[in-house]
Every structure is written in structure tokens, then in C-alpha cells.
Design a protein that fits this description.
This protein is mainly α. The protein has three helices and two strands; from the N terminus they run ααββα. The N terminus is likely disordered.
Length: about 120
């Protein structure tokens, strides 16, 4: 039992006396140390929150960039020719494929007059 607690009388039914530090100023030093640790932890939390927010912004930017890289045809059709290979860098407005809409095929041909009677 610490010296300060041993010198205080204890009555049954009451809580035991709290020991006091034999060295004055220890409690203040411990409190200051704990405050510094709490401040450090608050700084760490604020830093983590800022890093998470930055990661969210980077993710949103990456999603927007991905949408810019997606090529969508203006109609359903069949690819007839491919002018660019996957991964190739092309300028805006450059044709990369030729599409054919098979539901709207128009055929023009020449039939000799002699064979048209049949």
C-alpha cells in the first residue's frame, strides 16, 4: 500500500481512500501526456478523414475518365471494317469502325433487259 494511503484512516462501509502520488506534479505530468496523446489521435483521425475524401474524389474522377473511354455505336449493327486496333490512340472524330445496319439494307444492281423478262 502506498505511504499516503496507509496514513489515512479507513472506516468500514466507506470506499477506501484514493492513494495520492508521493511525488508532487506526477498527476499533472500524466494528464499533460494523455492530452498530447489525445491531440495526436485527433490529428491522425483528421488526416485519415481527409485521405478518405481525397480517395473518393479520385475514384469519381477515374469513373468519369472511364466513361470518356467507352465507345458506343449510335445504332445496333454489324462491324464491316475496323480502322483502329484495340488500345490504339486516335483523334476525336476519327472513324474507328464501319457499321452496317442489316435491318435497312438497300440493294442496287444491274439486270440486263434480256434477263429481266424471266
Amino acid at each position: 500500500m502506498p505511504l499516503a494511503a496507509a496514513s489515512m484512516p479507513h472506516t468500514p462501509g466507506s470506499p477506501p481512500p484514493r492513494p495520492t502520488s508521493p511525488i508532487p506534479g506526477i498527476r499533472g505530468f500524466q494528464a499533460a501526456t494523455v492530452r498530447k496523446q489525445i491531440d495526436q489521435q485527433k490529428g491522425d483521425i483528421a488526416s485519415s478523414v481527409a485521405a478518405a475524401q481525397q480517395a473518393r474524389f479520385q475514384f469519381a474522377e477515374a469513373q468519369a475518365n472511364r466513361q470518356d473511354l467507352t465507345v458506343t455505336a449510335p445504332f445496333d449493327g454489324t462491324v464491316m471494317t475496323r480502322a483502329a486496333e484495340p488500345g490504339e490512340v486516335v483523334s476525336a472524330g476519327t472513324a474507328i469502325v464501319t457499321l452496317l445496319d442489316l435491318s435497312k439494307v438497300y440493294l442496287r444492281g444491274y439486270i440486263p433487259k434480256a434477263k429481266s423478262a424471266r
